[in-house]
Design a protein that fits this description.
Largest sheet: 6 strands, mixed
Radius of gyration: 19 Å
Number of strands: 10
Strand order of the largest sheet: 6-7-8-3-9-10
CATH architecture of the largest domain: 3-Layer(aba) Sandwich
Shape: globular
Order of helices and strands: EEEHEEHEHHHHEHEHEEHH
CATH class of the largest domain: Alpha Beta
């Protein structure tokens, strides 16, 4: 089966500096693929090029066989690509469930005129989105927070809220940019369990994470970046023993 995501020869230049240079990777259907490396290796830049928040300077990105590297971010979202950013991004002044519902509006079918006129098709779709948002909140453990202000949530719950918002859009490819950063041990464990459940459901995911144990538990394959280039790829045991990875990132310990 062809890969769901195929990144080929992709570079991103800021001025005269390459953040990512001639990078290639494939992500198979249903795979959890981790991208690791030291700070400044180009991991988040790669994710933003896949999601459409940044344009690639060169190279191609194909999703489900179709080229998307010149496609707007909202169009990629409609195709099922969702990204959860490292920093908490919530809509203040809105409830938790309203925040989550935003994730589904990128893939709505009813047009703006129907929404303005509050036509029956729009009302039906709104009910469906609210139901999906409630299910997504339940899945991440925030059902009790549905009607509370989103900005009152602690950091760990704000991260979970972003996960729920992404899931509400029913993604086919979910990009997680350091989702466990700053979380307490219990919150990290709950997040790992959620990712394992999503993998069991067949969702394709890409994961940036500095916690090596977290990556070892969750990733089917790992791509290691250093200075914007791929220096290793494979399953965790091979990555952990790779001399280039040890020198650039892992060192002699099991933590970065």
């Amino acid at each position: 089966m062809a890969a769901l995501l195929d990144v080929s020869g992709v570079s991103r230049v800021f001025g005269n500096v390459y953040a990512v240079r001639d990078l290639g990777l494939e992500v198979a259907h249903g795979e959890t693929h981790a991208v690791i490396g030291p700070n400044g290796a180009g991991k988040s830049t790669l994710f933003r090029m896949i999601g459409g928040q940044l344009a690639a300077s060169s190279g191609t990105i194909r999703y489900d066989g179709a080229r998307i590297d010149r496609m707007a971010a909202y169009r990629r979202a409609r195709l099922g690509i969702a990204i959860v950013f490292q920093e908490a991004r919530i809509f203040r002044g809105m409830t938790a469930i309203e925040n989550v519902m935003v994730g589904a509006h990128a893939v709505t079918r009813v047009g703006s005129l129907a929404a303005v006129l509050r036509m029956p098709a729009h009302r039906r779709e709104e009910r469906d989105i609210r139901h999906r948002a409630q299910l997504a909140l339940s899945r991440v453990g925030l059902a009790a927070w549905a009607h509370r202000p989103a900005d009152a949530l602690p950091l760990g719950q704000q991260r979970a809220l972003q996960m729920a918002r992404a899931l509400c859009g029913r993604p086919r490819l979910l990009l997680l940019d350091e989702p466990a950063s700053g979380l307490r041990a219990a919150e990290r464990a709950a997040l790992a369990e959620l990712i394992e459940q999503l993998r069991a459901d067949g969702l394709t995911m890409m994961l940036i994470e500095h916690d090596v144990a977290f990556v070892a538990r969750l990733a089917d394959r790992i791509t290691v970046l250093d200075l914007g280039r791929v220096i290793a790829r494979g399953a965790f045991p091979a990555i952990r023993a790779d001399a280039k990875v040890i020198a650039a990132y892992l060192g002699n310990e099991d933590s970065p």
